[in-house]
Amino acid sequence: MKKVKEMKRAILGTGIVGAALVAGAATTVLPYGDVRLKGPMGERMNLMIEHHLKATDVDYITAPFLEKTERGRRWQTEFWGKFMHAAMPFWTYTQDAELRKHIDFGFERICASQEPSGYIGNYPDELRCGEGWDVWGMKYTMMGLMHYYDGLAPSDPKAQKALTAARRVCDYVIGELGPNGKRGYHLWESGNWNGFASSSILEPVVWLYNRTKDKKYLDFATYLVKDMTEVEAGPRLLDLALKGISVADRNGYGNKAETHGGYVMKRNRWKAYEMMSCYQGFIEYYEATGRKDLLDAAVATCDQIIRDEINIAGGSASSEAWFHGIRKQHLPYERLQETCVVTTWMRFVEKLLQVTGDPKYADELEKAFYNIYLASLNRNADEFAAYTPLNGYRSRGHHHCAMHTNCCNANGPRGFLAFLRALFQTDGEAAIFNLYASSSESVFLPKLNEKVAFDIYTIYPAEGNVRIVNHTVKQMPFTVKLRIPAWSAKTTVKVNGKPVEGVKAGTYCAITRTWTIGDVVEIFFDMTTRAHVMNNHVAFTRGPIALARDTRFNDGDINEVFRRRSIKDGQAMDFAFVRAPSEDIWMAYSASLPIGSHHEHPDGRRPQTVFFCDYASAGDLWQPSNAYRVWFPMEYGPAD
Ligand SMILES: [Zn+2]
Question: What is the pLDDT of residues 560-586, one digit of tens each?
Answer without folding.
Answer: 999 998 999 999 999 999 999 888 899
